[in-house]
Write a structure and sequence with these properties.
The structure holds two protein chains of two kinds.
Chain A lengths: L2 E5 L2 E5 L4 E8 L3 E9 L6 E6 L5 E4 L2 E5 L3 E6 L8 E9 L6 E3 L3 E6 L1
Parallel strand pairs in A: 2-11
Antiparallel strand pairs in A: 1-3, 3-8, 4-5, 4-9, 6-7, 7-8, 9-10, 9-11
Chain B lengths: L3 E4 L2 E4 L5 E7 L5 E8 L3 E10 L2 E4 L6 E3 L9 E3 L8 E8 L10 E2 L3 E5 L1
Parallel strand pairs in B: 2-11
Antiparallel strand pairs in B: 1-3, 3-8, 4-5, 4-9, 5-6, 7-8, 9-10, 9-11
Classes of the chains: A mainly beta, B mainly beta.
Chain lengths: ~110, ~120
Amino acid sequence: EDQVTQSPEALRLQEGESSSLNCSYTVSGLRGLFWYRQDPGKGPEFLFTLYSAGEEKEKERLKATLTKKESFLHITAPKPEDSATYLCAVQTTSGTYKYIFGTGTRLKVLA
Amino acid sequence: NAGVTQTPKFQVLKTGQSMTLQCAQDMNHEYMSWYRQDPGMGLRLIHYSVGAGITDQGEVPNGYNVSRSTTEDFPLRLLSAAPSQTSVYFCASSPRIGSLGYEQYFGPGTRLTVT
């Protein structure tokens, strides 16, 4: 069964303290892996798409990487405004076009 | 572009009532979907559509109907509301379907309470 697991569930960092969020996936085949940011009371906002192992994407303090079994979202020198829930999703090659989401990591960056 | 719009933003229903959540996108996107988001459960797919006239069930379709008569609109109908349908509902769209996956763009959500 296709599955996406994110860890940790919650993470508290001091401003400037770099860390990584993990997204492990088990799928029959991968069309794409996606990272989103969600602020309280709002819809998810698209960050990155990754397609193949070894691929990396970067935007400001965020860098997403992909292996054959997991993806990492690295946050370098975070600021309080990076506080949000980060969601990972995959679209598989199973014959349908469904997206499967993880339950997210709640990040809190303290000033 | 307005992107993905949803109405209403908030709704309270009594058990057994029916209603339609509206979703529209102005980006000429091929793919549209409905999710519900509950604490600790993440986003769960209710129904999706890969084009006008084509819909399919997701992970939690029971109690919900959809149709897609135009590219722009993808309404979600609750047939007979139940307290278990209390949730936040998100509509999303994606540019196209193909061998590679494409990102989804989400609406602002509808917060539904069923009493």
